Amino acid sequence: MPPVWHLAFYPVLLINFPMTITSANTQQIGGHHYKSVYQHWDLVVEVGMGYFDGQISKYVCRWNKKNGLEDLRKARHFAEKYWEVLQTGLLSVGTRNTQHVQEALEKFYQANRLTENHWETEVLKILAHSHGAIEVARIMNILDGQVASTPIGAT
Prior knowledge:
Blueprint: E1 5-7, H1 40-47, H2 51-62, H3 69-88, E2 91-93, H4 98-111, H5 119-128, H6 133-149
Parallel strand pairs: 1-2
């Protein structure tokens, strides 16, 4: 039987995290889609997202600012692979501090002008909290609906 990798969540000990801007936050290589003070990678670090969570949420957060339908398809593709890996038992997701996650999400929504009733925020909530294959399947369904309703070339 292959080993099972457990993703343990360890709270990030940065007292004023979003205010602690690193030099990497002051520049962007290519494009102009990351403009907020509290960027996607800040959320990933603060919440403790894993690889698949980070990739899916990245494409969900930038789709309407960068590559449109292509980014939605990429998010869906990563969600499919994540679901497959979770189904095999090769990967499991650790628990996260719910209050800390909610505070980080609220900071991210505010900095990026997102409201809690958008489909993007629903996906972020699922990814930021503890989840399994059932929740990832729900993300795939959400993304399927967005891919189907987004015109080719839309951003």
